[in-house]
Amino acid sequence: MFAPRIRRFVFLGLAGFGLAGCSGGDQWATEYADLIDPNVSKNWRIANIDVRVPESLSVSEANSFAPDADIVWREEPLANRHQQVDRIITRAAQIGSGQLTGARAVNLVVQVSEFHALTQKARTTLQNSGVHNITFTAQVLDAKTGVELTPVDTIRADLVGFSGAQAVEAVKQGQTQRVRIIAHVSQVIAGWLGHGPDVRSTFSRNGR
Q1: Terminus of the chain with fewer CB atoms < 10 Å: N or C?
Q2: Which of 137, 140, 141 is nearest to 155 (CA)?
Q3: Cα torsion at 162, 87, 98, 110 (round to 10°)?
Q4: Can you say how many angstroms the Cα of residue 168 is from the centroid of all Cα atoms in its chain?
Q5: What would the pLDDT profile of 169-180 be if each residue is shown by its tens digit?
Q6: For the chain, which domains are there?
Q7: CA-based angle 184:189:192, to the nearest 5?
Q8: Segment 173-177 long-range contacts (CB within 8 Å, at least 24 positions apart)
Q9: pTM for the full predicted model
């Protein structure tokens, strides 16, 4: 488990509405530990997925470049953001664990600690900047006994967030923020479970 990240703040530059910082941008990553043996997980079958998005997580609706909150999500109509994030991560977990069809029934528990997508302002004003910051813990338990089969592992699933012309083109291709986040998180969960490609990586980009 890695140390908690220091929250980064983004400042608007005066020229070209760029994000300030080092020329290469901030460093982001998809990270998870090698905890699950594929020879073990291939015998698992997901009986239940329990996604938790604690009400204690703060939400911001401020249309600024980088609101200081745990949840920033704008691609759905204004409603309960915790529930919206729950549905997104639940769908990703269903896809990411769906290929496990073994004999042993297990439960997958996921708890979100950060879900920070792009605001309207960042998405429409910036160019080639922006990052979706997604962090959660995951654990597998025996469905019958409740015995912990893995420790609680912290997973970081940062993803390039499209802005400006790139965002417009992505939406034309059906690649909305929701679609891209579900696809990425599902791949991360599959990799962590040991039955999908290892998608761990780092990238440099100006973003939150």
Answers
A1: N
A2: 137
A3: 100
A4: 21
A5: 999 999 999 999
A6: 27-205 (3.40.50)
A7: 125
A8: 176/75, 177/75, 177/117, 177/118, 177/132
A9: 0.87
pLDDT at position 12 over 60: no
Please report the sign of the dihedral spanned by the C-alpha atoms of residue 53, residue 57, residue 60, residue 65: negative
Task: Give SS3 for 150.
Answer: coil
Report the 10 Å Cβ neighbour count for 205: 18
**Beta strand pairing status for 71-72 and 104-116?**
parallel
Cite the DSSP H helix spans in the chain. Answer: 38-41, 81-97, 120-125, 164-172, 177-193
**Six-digit token pair at 52?**
């938790």
Q: For residues 128 and 162, what is the distance between their CA atoms, to the nearest angstrom?
A: 7
Tell me the two tokens of residue 184. Answer: 């990425």
pLDDT band at 4 (very low <50, low <70, confident <90, very high): very low
Residue 10, pLDDT > 70, answer no
* Number of CB atoms found within 10 A of residue 12's CB: 15
Is the pLDDT at 6 greater than 50, yes or no?
no
Centroid of chain to Cα 190: 13
CA–CA separation, 182 vs 141, rounded Å? 23
* Residue 195, pLDDT score: 93
Q: Note the maximum CA span of the chain.
A: 59
pLDDT digits (tens, 9 = 90+) for 118-132: 999 999 999 989 999
Return all residues near 121 (Cβ < 8 A) that are at least 6 apart: 63, 64, 65
